Amino acid sequence: MSQGKQIYYNNLRKNVNNMHPRLKELAVEAGAYVDGNNLLTGPMDDAKFAELIVRECALVVHKKTGP
After folding, report:
1. What is the pLDDT of residue 57?
2. Which residues, in sequence order, are bridge partners of residue 38?
3. 20: closest CA among 58, 56, 59?
4. How many Å apart are CA 24 and CA 35, to the nearest integer?
5. pLDDT at site 52
6. Residue 26: CB partners within 8 Å, gap ≥ 6?
7. Which of 24-47 are b and which e, b meaning 16 or more Cβ less than 10 Å from the residue's Cβ?
8. How far is CA 21 from CA 4, 17, 24, 67, in A?
9. Rounded to an integer, what distance in angstroms lies between the CA atom of residue 50 and that of residue 64?
10. Among 5, 19, 26, 64, who pairs with 52 as Cys (CB 3.0-4.6 Å)?
11. Cβ pair 54, 27 in contact under 8 A
12. pLDDT at 1
């Protein structure tokens, strides 16, 4: 694992308690798993996580602006 990716995962684990619950759900959908209150990234697919975040944002914008 690259040093940058390791830093990313460490920051994600450290900040999980401050993470919005919906982002936790999306991380789990992308392959991460939760052990108690700790989000453990495991084999999480970063690209899938990003795609899910973008999709979620698009849904929120669509709801606010209408069809």
Report:
1. 93
2. 35
3. 56
4. 12
5. 96
6. 49, 52, 53, 56
7. eebbeebebeeeeeebebeebeee
8. 25, 9, 5, 27
9. 21
10. 26
11. no
12. 65
pTM: 0.67
Question: Between the CA atoms of 55, 30, 23 and 12, what dihedral angle is there, to the nearest 10 degrees?
Answer: -130
* Low-confidence spans in the chain with pLDDT less than 50: none
pLDDT value at position 37? 67
Q: For residues 4 and 25, what is the distance between their CA atoms, to the nearest angstrom?
A: 23
Contact criterion met (CB below 8 Å) for 32 and 47: no
- For the chain, the three-class secondary structure string (H helix, E strand, C coil) is CCHHHHHHHHHHHHCHHHCCHHHHHHHHHCCCEEECCEEECCCCCHHHHHHHHHHHHHHHHHHHHCC
